[in-house]
Structures are given as C-alpha cells and as structure tokens.
C-alpha cells in the first residue's frame, strides 16, 4: 500500500502558523495588561501616601499655602490614577480580544488534527484489511496446493 499522505497538510501548516502568531500577540497583550496593572497599583500607592501625608500634616498645624499645594498635587495624582485606570481597562479589553483570537486559532488547529487522526485511522484500517486479504489469499493458495498434491498422489 502506498504511504499515508494527508491532503490537508498545507492547511494544517497555515493554521499552526496562525495559531503561533495569535499566541505571541496574546502573550504581548497579557504582558501589557500586567504592566498597566502594576502602574495603576503604583499610582494608587502614591495617592495613598499623599493622603496620609496630608492627614498627618493637619494634626500639627494648618498652613493654607501648604494645603493648597497639597490639594493641587492630590488632584494631579488622582487624574493620573484615572488615566492609568483607563489604560488598564483598555489593556484588559485588548487582552480579552487577543485571547479570543488565540482560542479561535487553536480550535481551527484542533479541527485539522481531528481530521488527520480520522484519516490516519481510516488509512490503517484499509492497510490492515489489505494485509488480511493477502494473508487469506496465501492461505487459500496453500490449501489449493495441498489438495492438488493429495489428489495427484492418491489415485
């Protein structure tokens, strides 16, 4: 029997490349999301530190000029934190989109793998069937030879 050849091999190769690219894009998106999460946490820590500083400063004495500059700094830190939160939300959305694209590419590869598995199974069954037919034919020839030999020697 001839060697097994899967007719959809070029499709499988293309889908595997697409899956690899999608995996790389997804990994980059995850990295970007984690980085934006860390930046947001840093911004929240800065805001908390400034809040503690403002609160502790009020215990000792109240200076209007200092409070005004603290409030300006506090507003700036809060605006930066909001911007970082927006960036994190965008990064999460991009990561989810890339994840869906990767899963779609992975499913496409799995479909081809299942088709190849079915084709290989069918090929093996056909190969086994042909081998069994050959063995049956040889056994039939041996029996025919024995019968012919026994009829020649027993007149």
Describe this structure in words.
It is a single chain. The chain has helices at 9-60, 64-153. With 155 residues, it is mostly helical. The chain has a single domain, classed as Orthogonal Bundle (Helix Hairpins). The longest helix has 90 residues, at 64-153. The model has no long low-confidence stretch (mean pLDDT 91).
Instruction: Find the count of extended strands (DSSP E, 2+ residues).
Output: 0
CATH topology-level name? Helix Hairpins
Radius of gyration from the alpha-carbon trace, in angstroms:
37 Å
CATH architectural designation? Orthogonal Bundle
Give the overall shape. rod-shaped
Order of helices and strands: HH
Helical run tally: 2
Assign the CATH class: Mainly Alpha
Give helix % range: over 70%
Strand content bin: under 5%
Q: What's the story with the biggest beta sheet? A: none
User: For the terminal residues, how far apart are their CA atoms?
Assistant: 43 Å
Structural class: mainly alpha
- The average pLDDT value, as a whole number, equals 91
Count of domain modules: 1
Low-confidence stretches: none
């Amino acid at each position: 029997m001839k060697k097994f050849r899967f007719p959809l091999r070029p499709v499988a190769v293309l889908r595997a490349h697409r899956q690899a690219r999608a995996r790389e894009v997804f990994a980059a998106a995850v990295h970007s999301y984690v980085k934006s999460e860390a930046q947001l946490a840093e911004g929240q820590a800065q805001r908390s530190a400034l809040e503690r500083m403002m609160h502790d400063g009020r215990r000792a004495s109240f200076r209007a000029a200092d409070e005004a500059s603290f409030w300006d700094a506090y507003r700036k830190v809060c605006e930066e934190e909001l911007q970082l939160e927006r960036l994190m939300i965008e990064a999460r959305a991009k990561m989810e989109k890339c994840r869906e694209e990767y899963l779609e590419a992975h499913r496409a590869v799995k479909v081809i793998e299942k088709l190849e598995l079915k084709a290989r199974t069918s090929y093996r069954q056909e190969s086994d069937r042909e081998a069994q037919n050959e063995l049956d034919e040889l056994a039939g020839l041996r029996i025919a030879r024995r019968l012919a030999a026994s009829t020649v020697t027993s007149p």
